[in-house]
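Fill in residues.
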């Protein structure tokens, strides 16, 4: 019990040469110590955290630590419904404890950082405050960022700075919506194609800029997805931009104007794969039922002779399966 309390405080104990136990702070871990202690699940968590940019604890517990109750409680199949409810709850608590311990170890190794503060609540007078702590969110540290990029082979010129990673927290909700698209792709769709290996046959690059040959023009999709030799420029549409711009405000952001930007950049590219990329709009929350058809109409104006250049779907699976 004492050992668990020490772990929860970010300090662990290790035996010294005399057999006694001494405290070891996170600063005593070398980079080699940290990397040597990473298992396959740890690498999966870190890589997914890199590609999502951030992740709430509840999702991490469900994805990486919540096993089926039969694995831990052999009697599960033979007991009644009431007992199964108890075992299910016990299984979730087991997964939560395991996850917290695992994340604490990665925090001790300097790989991740976390926050659970609700800033707006701390600004209120004490008698009007609600909970000042909410869902715990995890992020990579500078050390975690570097070892993941080395692990998955990110080119030097494409590597992120910690400043860029931290600045993305200003658009936390947007990047988490995009992260959910990646997780859906990774765990629900690409598993249907076991012959495709991640980082070899398919890749996901969030917030990746696409340039013309001269680099005089560029466009920045929410993410770039590559499957084989087919590239998708993923746009996560939140139904906040007009489909067509007003004729009185030519600088107004619109879907049609963004499509024009894609057209202008891609036609100035000599890279065949980049030039033949498909622009994929995903609408997780369809506010207006007509949104799908309206985007298709805008696409027909910009790409009148290329019906497959712009695809629209409610999830990433719609986009992938539309090419089958």
């Amino acid at each position: 019990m004492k050992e668990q309390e020490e772990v929860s405080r970010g300090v662990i104990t290790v035996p010294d040469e005399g057999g006694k136990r001494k405290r070891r702070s996170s600063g005593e871990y070398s980079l080699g110590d940290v990397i040597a202690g990473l298992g396959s699940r740890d690498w999966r968590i870190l890589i997914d955290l890199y590609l999502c940019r951030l992740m709430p604890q509840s999702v991490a517990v469900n994805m990486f630590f919540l096993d089926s109750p039969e694995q831990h409680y052999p009697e599960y199949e033979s007991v009644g419904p009431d007992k199964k409810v108890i075992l299910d709850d016990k299984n979730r608590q087991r997964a939560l404890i395991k996850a917290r311990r695992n994340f604490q170890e990665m925090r001790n190794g300097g790989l991740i950082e976390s926050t659970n503060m609700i800033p707006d609540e701390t600004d209120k007078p004490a008698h009007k405050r609600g909970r000042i702590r909410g869902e715990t969110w995890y992020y990579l540290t500078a050390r975690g960022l570097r070892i993941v990029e080395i692990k998955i082979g990110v080119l030097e010129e494409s590597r992120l700075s910690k400043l860029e990673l931290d600045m993305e927290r200003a658009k936390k909700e947007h990047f988490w919506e995009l992260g959910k698209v990646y997780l859906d792709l990774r765990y629900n769709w690409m598993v249907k194609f076991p012959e495709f290996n991640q980082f070899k046959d398919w890749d996901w690059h969030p917030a990746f800029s696409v340039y013309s040959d001269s680099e005089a023009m560029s466009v920045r999709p929410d993410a770039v997805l590559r499957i084989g030799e087919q590239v998708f420029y993923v746009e996560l549409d939140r139904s906040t931009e007009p489909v067509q711009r007003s004729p009185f405000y030519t600088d107004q952001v619109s879907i049609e104007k963004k499509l024009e930007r894609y057209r202008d950049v891609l036609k100035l590219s000599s890279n065949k794969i980049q030039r033949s990329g498909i622009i994929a709009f995903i609408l997780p929350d369809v506010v207006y039922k007509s949104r799908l058809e309206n985007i298709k109409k805008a696409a027909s104006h910009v790409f009148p002779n290329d019906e497959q250049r712009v695809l629209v779907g409610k999830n990433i699976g719609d986009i992938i399966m539309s090419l089958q």
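The chain has two domains: 1-160, 173-324.
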